[in-house]
Amino acid sequence: MSKSMQERLQAFQVAKASMRALARMIEADKVTPRMEMYKEIGKDFDVTHHAIRSRYMKWVALGDEALMPKPSGRKKGDGKRITDEEEEIIKTIIIDKTPAQIKMPFALWSCKSVRDLILQECGVTYQISAVGKYLKRWGFTVQKPTIKKHGQQPKAVQKWLAEEYPAIVKQAAEEGGMIWWGDETAVQNDQNQLRGYSLKGKTPVAPGPSKKLHLHMVSAVNNQGLVHFKIYKDAVNVERFTDFMESMIKDAEGRKIFLVVDNLPVHHANILKPWREMNIDLLELKFLPSYSPELNPDEYLNRDMKSRLANKPVTSCAKELERRVGDYMGELSNNEDLVASFFEHGVVKYAATA
Fold first, then answer.
1. How many angstroms separate the CA atoms of 303 and 272, rounded?
2. Is pLDDT at 192 greater than 70 in this prediction?
3. How far is C-alpha 101 from the geometric centre of its chain's CA atoms?
4. Which residue has the higher pLDDT, 243 or 102?
5. Tens digit of pLDDT for each residue in 235-265?
6. DSSP 3-state assignment of 179?
7. Fewest CB atoms within 10 Å of the CB: 82, 125, 184, 241?
């Protein structure tokens, strides 16, 4: 006998005992109000008097059969319109492919696109809400995607992760060097990321800048929680990038730097090559695969900084904008845990333990 059946029989015996006790009480006492009897029996059997009354009415009408609890819930698989095998097919497609790869007109998997996938693969139509329940049961959650740049080569990324970066780690260990991750960013006094609460239907209003301002910054981080940066008023060119690298060399005090950067033309410029060759023992550039900013932990520094600056009052003063950037970077320089956290995002965890 199954456990659930045993539990139902046990509940049946208790319910029957409560009705026998109530019937004896009613037969022996013609004066006490019936509701008082329900309450007394309810206390004895640890149920509410409302439950005793309802149970009694059903018992009088239908006998002991009315006291047998019905099976709770429904059996696994009841109501399913696709088989277990079809479920596995759908899950595998969602995990391994994007909608575009199977020629569906969607960027990502959503309830609507999965509904269409089930119709396409299984010939079964579901309501959107039912598809959402399936996805939840399968362990899928709604997530913000990592944006893969157009032109990225998956094989190059795989080679970087499997071969090129491990080789850099090995070289750095052999030469007693440190691996840093560098990036350039422009900081503006716009409010594209500004968000704030307001009454429903009433869009908040924020003052815009009287003139556009731009600052440029080169920064680098390592997985030990260290950060290095320089702020420039003009766009980063070979001269300014060289200035940044020389400042890193100075702070390294003789320890070799392996600086991982993207493929910005400045980094590959021919006029930079003599400097690179002359300083190869102090700083060596290493290059990420093309169109792969998500592999650079320093990208998360830029995102964090811009997110924080976006919530400050708008300024049209260049010195104030520079001060805000400098304040953030100064605080970051004293917060090794925050810098190290940039390496904990899923796609850059590979760089966290080098």
1. 28
2. no
3. 23
4. 243
5. 899 999 999 999 999 999 999 999 999 999 8
6. strand
7. 125
Q: Tell me: pLDDT of 169 over 90.
A: yes
- The model carries a pTM of 0.57
Cα 47 off chain centre by? 45
Q: Regarding beta strands 227-232 and 214-221, do their DSSP bridges make them parallel or antiparallel, or are they unpaired?
A: antiparallel
What ranges do the domains of the chain cover?
Answer: 3-67, 84-138, 154-194+208-351
- Candidates 306, 303, 309; CA nearest to 348 is 303
Query: CA 80, CA 255: separation in Å to the nearest integer?
Result: 64
What H or E segment, with its residue span, contains residue 23?
A: helix 3-28
Phi, psi of 249 (to 5 degrees): -60, -40
Instruction: Specify the residue for token string 């046990």.
Output: 10
Assigned token pair, 22: 């109530």
d(CA 300, CA 339): 9
Both tokens of 113, joined, read 């696109």
Whether 215 contacts 232, CB under 8 Å: yes
Q: 3-state secondary structure string, 47-99?
A: CCHHHHHHHHHHHHHHHHHHHCCCCCCCCCCCCCCCCHHHHHHHHHHHHHCCH
Tokens, residue 62: 């239908």
Judge whether 213 and 318 are in contact, CB under 8 Å: yes
User: What's the token pair of residue 102?
Assistant: 């199977």
Which residue from 25, 8, 5, 14 is spatially nearest to 55, judged by alpha carbons? 14
154-194+208-351 — its CATH code?
3.30.420.10
